Amino acid sequence: MDPVTQGTLGAALPQSVAHPHKIGLAMLCGIAGGMAPDLDVLIRSATDPLLFLEYHRQFTHSLIFIPLGAALVALVLWGAVGRRRDWAFREIYLFAGLGYATHALLDACTSYGTLLFWPFSQERFAWNNVSIIDPLLTLPLIALVLTSRLSHRRWPAVLGMLWAIGYLSLGVVARDAAVEVGQQIAKGRGHTPQVVEAKPSFANLFLWKTIYQQDEHYYVDAVRLGGEPVVYPGEVVATLDLSRDFPWLDHNSLQARDIERFRWFSMGYIAADPDFENRIMDIRYSLLPNEIRPLWSIQLNPQSQDSEHVAYRVSRERGAGTVGRLWSMIRGLPL
Which residue windows are transmembrane per the record (predicted)? Predict the structure, then answer.
């Protein structure tokens, strides 16, 4: 999730159990603990563009790391502020630990993938029940956390936790409903995929991206939930076949190994980009949920496949009318 939501939820949990006179301390420590795991984004390499993909949402997000992560946050807070204000270290540690504990579980609710059981498992957990940014989750939570701080009462923070749990639970219900519609779409095409996945579109729980694989192709569509679901038929792309798509690639080369790293990060949802030569895309994310145009991809170089890593590409380009089309889809209007 975005850092604002992480910090706010991180504050809500310790506030909900703190003594009224400690609400401010709980808020500060909870915000710091709730945001701290994302400091792993600083782990980067000038020569290996994919290194940050391996470490983001890795050890700092593992459930086993919570006690150590909380201790590091508490030490920083105690050294920077706590000693001068005579704050008890055990309280700082408790509040920071509660905030830290919310982070990975909230991240796992998105589609990105979180290594909850590192180092015992390399599985990336993605429950797909909330968008990475969702103001309907975040804004009420911010209001309740601030109300708790200003009133020195626990109940607004408790209500904030209940709101977050309820909203994320609603996301599970919506996700399952979108999967069911996705299965109906596949059945209508005469397909019988083993798995249909649904992922929320940007900042809402109404519009979903469905993905399934049939034979050697991925099928992407959008589903707007409601009394009568609206289906926005999408695009089809061939699954990645290295021998077909990149016949020049040495399968023992550095770039071939980078492709496997990108496949692991993308949880298998990769394909050759039909619009750019020698580019492989992660089809999970796109600005419009019925499109395959990726937000990120990797660029291969046939001339340096064993001497340089692949290049990492991020695309934020929007075609004409993209925002308007997305808003129309969220409202369930015809395109």
Answer: 59-81, 93-120, 126-146, 155-174
Q: Which of 148, 171, 194 is the last residue of a domain?
A: 171
For CA atoms 323, 324, 325, 330, give the dihedral sign.
positive
Indicate yes or no: pTM above 0.85. yes
Domain identity same for 249 and 112: no
> Are 31 and 155 within one domain?
yes
| pLDDT tens per residue across span 186-206 | 999 999 999 999 999 999 999
Residue 225 lies in a domain: no
Distance (Å, whole) CA 93 – CA 82:
11
Is residue 274 included in any domain, yes or no?
yes
Task: Judge if 16 and 123 occupy the same domain.
Answer: yes
| Residue 308, domain extent | 236-330
The torsion angles phi and psi of 115, rounded to 5 degrees, stand at -90, 80
The pLDDT tens digits of the residues spanning 80-92 come to 998 889 899 999 9
DSSP assignment string, 255-289: HHHHHHHHHHHTTT-EEE-TTSTTEEEETT--SST
Across the beta sheet with 217-224, the strand order is 196-200, 207-214, 217-224, 230-238
d(CA 127, CA 119) in angstroms, rounded, equals: 20
